[in-house]
Amino acid sequence: MSCHRLPTILLLVLASAGPLPAAATAPAGRGEPLPDELENVGIDEHRGDPVPGGLVFRDEQGRDVELASFFGRERPVILVFGYYRCPMLCPLVMHGLFDALRELEWSAGEQFEVLYVSIDPTDTPRAAQKMKASYLRDYVRPTAEAGVHFLTGEEASIRALADAVGFRYAYVADRNEYAHGAVITLLTPDGAISQYLYGVAFDPQTLRLALVEASEGAIGSALDRFLLLCFHYDSEAGRYTPSVLAMVRIGGVVTVGLIGVFLIVLWRRERGRDGDRPGSSR
Fold first, then answer.
1. What angle do CA 100, 84, 101 make, to 5 degrees?
2. Any idea what DSSP says for residue 115?
3. Cβ atoms within 10 Å of 187's Cβ, excluding its own
4. Which tens digit of pLDDT belongs to each residue from 166-207?
5. Predicted TM-score of the model (pTM)
6. How far apart are CA 161 and CA 55, in angstroms?
7. How far apart are alpha carbons 154 and 227 in whole angstroms?
8. What angle do CA 69, 152, 191 make, to 5 degrees?
9. Do 12 and 89 form a contact (C-beta atoms < 8 A)?
10. Tens digit of pLDDT for each residue in 1-13?
11. How far separated are the first and last CA of the chain, in Å rounded?
12. Selecting from 3.20.20.190, 3.20.20.70, 3.40.30.10, 3.40.190.10, what CATH number does the domain 7-222 have?
């Protein structure tokens, strides 16, 4: 493995393990600092915050599009940052995402949107068009063409969107590459940040529940919505785990319900016995 790729591998390992801290520092007990490209790289989670819909980007055809045009369709949006000539991490994230999407019965353009935004202002719509075509060759869904978007933009728009999401990246001039984390962000249909999923492989069930949560109940079955009442997303575990408080509440409701049923049964039996006694009126 060449030294040229080592920082990228290191970043991949760190990003896959979970969110990088707000200020990256060397591990305790070690004197050497982290590589310079990692100093300002990481994720600051901004759940619940809106993304700026007025930002303008370019689509695969080179047309100017406002970010807001991807919202208001009653569908959640999967937002991914990367760049089209990325040598390793971006393709790994996207392959992991589409591997999970192929396991879902839902389709981009019908139940959700996929939005890939390049962090490199020198990327072109032609590069975006080629990237889109390469992923849609294996993601064969009737609505995929209209539901998967690869964008480019100016530095100001890219930075504004990345800052709103908390996606901190850095340009590494000596290698002409970008250092960044491995994460996808789930947005609600009206453009608010719902969830962050980390790594380069995504469990289909976790992605499904994240989409249900981001959709605010607009998609998914009754079982999916029930599971969200009982589970919460654990970013360290990278999946939805049981919520003890929710389980206690649901257990309490079930217990009260069973007691109520038991009392009704007893009451009906007593009425039946009273009716069978001599001299009782019917």
1. 10
2. E
3. 24
4. 999 999 999 999 999 999 999 999 999 999 999 999 999 999
5. 0.74
6. 8
7. 41
8. 35
9. yes
10. 333 344 444 444 4
11. 91
12. 3.40.30.10
